[in-house]
């Protein structure tokens, strides 16, 4: 239960427990949480508390086992950043304990798993948010505003590209049994882009994939929507870093580089092409992890869970379509 504040205009921060001491939790989530006025760190859990104490150096929060963290009554929401194959088990346990959940992407390794998790959240009137943090960066709202103005006409094509060098040896992302592979690691970025900008539902999907044994190292595909829009994507391990999307419209084109991983202190560029004319629009620096945390806290306080949960399900359904179109050759 979220404790009331003595000042109704300044509610107490939401108390968050970190379930898992991943690299992304240490490098991205914790700094964002420390800079947020809407939430605070209550506890950290790990299957190896000694290792967690070393990794989370300078953190004052108590370090617990996962079971101990979920039993704590002073935790309102749990951030889960475990290896992919553990997401369903610990999300369900967190929901059973009455906690709201932010789960790192991918929320689940299959659509059926996502459906079970979201049904559990809905039945308990709890929020379950898949961490598509990058969509909270203001650059994407700025792009939407340009398109909504009608200045460059309707969307014709969206291209979403995200790839980077092969993860290092020992990284769980190279282990299919732990939910590794390019599809599970990267496809949510392209799926989230499609969900954010396309006007019509995707109705056809086809593509191909690359493999090293059982490990999916890349996928690329195309899809069309009921509105006649074309969606093209590529998600790859083992290439030079690349992270951008382009939106081609009837009378212009928008490109956003560093679309998915802009540093919090970096002002990004939105490039607007209209014929031969290029207009560069500056997007202000922003910590999309902090903005995501603040948005989730607002949703929890407003009780607006169903819309977010429905979007999470729609993203999982789109990811399933991507998998069937590209991986099941």
What are the salient characteristics of this protein?
329 residues, Rossmann fold, alpha/beta, Dihydrodipicolinate Reductase, domain 2, 6-stranded parallel sheet, disordered N terminus, 8-stranded mixed sheet, single chain
Can you give a write-up of this model?
The chain has two domains: 14-131 and 291-309, NAD(P)-binding Rossmann-like Domain (Rossmann fold, 3-Layer(aba) Sandwich), CATH 3.40.50.720; 135-286, Dihydrodipicolinate Reductase, domain 2 (2-Layer Sandwich), CATH 3.30.360. The chain is built from nine helices and 14 strands. With 329 residues, it is an alpha/beta fold. Strand 11 and strand 12 (253-257) form a beta hairpin. It has helices at 23-34, 49-55, 66-71, 87-96, 111-123, 138-148, 182-197, 288-302, 305-326; strands at residues 14-19, 39-45, 62-64, 77-80, 100-103, 128-130, 155-164, 202-212, 215-225, 230-237, 242-249, 253-257, 268-274, 277-283.
The structural class is alpha/beta
Can you identify the CATH superfamily of the largest domain? Answer: Dihydrodipicolinate Reductase, domain 2
The CATH topology of the largest domain comes to Dihydrodipicolinate Reductase, domain 2
- Terminal Cα span: 48 Å
CATH domain class of the largest domain: Alpha Beta
CATH architecture of the largest domain: 2-Layer Sandwich
Strand percentage lies at 25-35%
Neighbour order of strands in the largest sheet: 8-9-10-7-11-12-13-14
Percent of residues in helices comes to: 25-40%
Round the Cα radius of gyration to an integer and report it.
Answer: 20 Å
Q: Largest sheet, described in full?
A: 8 strands, mixed
What's the pLDDT, averaged over the residues? 92
| Tally of individual helices | 9
Q: Which stretches of 5+ consecutive residues score pLDDT under 50?
A: 1-8
User: What is the chain-wise order of helices and strands?
Assistant: EHEHEHEHEHEHEHEEEEEEEHH
Principal-axis shape: globular
Q: Domains counted in the coordinates: how many?
A: 2
**Beta strand count:** 14
């Amino acid at each position: 239960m979220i404790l009331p504040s003595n000042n109704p205009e300044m509610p107490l921060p939401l108390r968050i427990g970190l379930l898992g001491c991943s690299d992304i939790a240490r490098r991205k989530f914790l700094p964002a949480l420390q800079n947020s006025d809407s939430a605070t760190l209550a506890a950290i859990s790990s299957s190896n508390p000694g290792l967690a104490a070393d990794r989370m150096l300078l953190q004052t929060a108590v370090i617990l086992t996962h079971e101990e963290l979920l039993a704590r009554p002073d935790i309102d929401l749990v951030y889960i950043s475990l290896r992919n194959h553990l997401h369903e088990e610990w999300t369900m346990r967190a929901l059973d304990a009455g906690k709201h959940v932010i789960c790192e992407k991918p929320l689940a390794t299959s659509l059926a798993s996502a459906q079970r998790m979201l049904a559990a959240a809905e039945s308990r009137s709890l929020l379950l948010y898949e961490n598509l943090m990058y969509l909270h960066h203001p650059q994407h709202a700025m792009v939407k505003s340009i398109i909504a103005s009608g200045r460059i006409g309707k969307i014709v094509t969206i291209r979403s590209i995200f790839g980077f060098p092969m993860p290092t040896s020992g990284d769980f992302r190279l282990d299919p049994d732990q939910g590794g592979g390019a599809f599970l690691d990267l496809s949510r970025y392209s799926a989230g882009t499609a969900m954010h900008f396309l006007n019509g539902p995707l109705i056809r999907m086809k593509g191909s994939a690359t493999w090293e044994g059982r490990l999916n190292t890349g996928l690329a595909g195309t899809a069309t929507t009921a509105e006649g829009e074309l969606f093209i994507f590529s998600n790859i391990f083992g290439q030079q870093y690349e992270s951008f999307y382009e939106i081609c419209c009837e009378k212009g084109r928008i490109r956003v580089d560093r679309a998915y991983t802009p540093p919090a202190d970096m002002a990004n560029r939105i490039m607007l092409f209209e014929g031969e004319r290029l207009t560069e629009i500056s997007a202000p620096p922003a910590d999309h992890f902090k903005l995501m945390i603040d948005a989730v806290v607002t949703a929890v306080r407003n009780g607006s869970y169903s819309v977010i949960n429905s979007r999470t399900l729609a993203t999982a359904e789109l990811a399933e379509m991507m998998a069937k179109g590209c991986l099941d050759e």
